Amino acid sequence: MKIKDLLFILVLILSTAVCSFAQNNTKKDTVSLNKTGIAKSSPAYAEVLLRKTDLLAELESLLVDYTEEYPKVKELRFETGSLQKELDILLAVNPAESSKLSAALGKLMVRKCELGTDLWVLQKEFNDQHPDVKRAKRKFEIFEAAIKDILQTK
After folding, report:
1. Whole-prediction pTM value?
2. Please, which contacts does 113-121 make with residues 24 or more away whose CB atoms are closer than 8 Å?
3. Within 13 Å, how many C-alpha atoms sit on residue 85's CB side?
4. For residue range 75-109, what is the model confidence (pLDDT) as tens digits?
5. Which tens digits make up the pLDDT trace of 49-75?
6. Are 45 and 39 in contact (CB under 8 A)?
7. Residue 10 binned pLDDT confidence (cut-offs 50, 70, 90)
């Protein structure tokens, strides 16, 4: 009888530990989901994702007829990469500051990526002292500063 009691207690302890472990993991997953869920449901995220999706669709249609070396394909790859970086920035925003994730922020981010791509194309053709490159760099910096101003933690 003692062995049965001992086995019963051991099973009870193990099942309690497993249940406790499962509850802790569920709480961590929920916190992680809430953090990304808030950002993903924001107008800023939607704006950037919409632009990235449009570009990916355009890229897929180009790849039917052209290779990865085609200039427009390279541009689209560069810009979609920039947009992904912006999405990652949005996902990293503290949920308590989710009110900053407005449609205006999303539009600023999209425009920054467009300007960044224009700058990248110009830099491949001209040196940094060329007036067009200087103008493009300055425009890019202005949008970058506006985004940083909005996302800046107080």
Report:
1. 0.77
2. 113/48, 113/51, 113/79, 113/82, 113/83, 113/86, 114/79, 115/139, 115/140, 115/143, 116/78, 116/79, 116/82, 116/140, 117/75, 117/78, 117/79, 117/82, 120/75, 120/78, 121/75
3. 11
4. 999 999 999 999 999 999 999 999 999 999 999 99
5. 999 999 999 999 999 999 999 999 999
6. yes
7. low
